[in-house]
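Exam revision sheet. Question 4 asks you to relate a sequence to its structure. Input first:
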Amino acid sequence: MEKPIENFWSLRLANVKEALEANNFEVHIAENADAAKKIVREIIPGTGAKSVSWGGSVTYVETGLYQEVKDYPGLEILDTYEKGVSP
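Answer key, structure tokens:
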């Protein structure tokens, strides 16, 4: 079998996706941070969201998704890092 570790994680990811979808989650898989940003830009308009929040994920910040959402026009960010926001 070529690339057994990559194969393992691909199968594991497919299983997680299936389990989440079985529990009524909408799941999107991105190859990299740029693909994830593209998915987010495509999803936001259809949600009708006026504000969003997040749980303080370092991955969310490091991939640039935080900035992508923060820069999205007309969307209020309830920023968990902002002073004065209730815990």
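Marking note for examiners. The radius of gyration is 16 Å.
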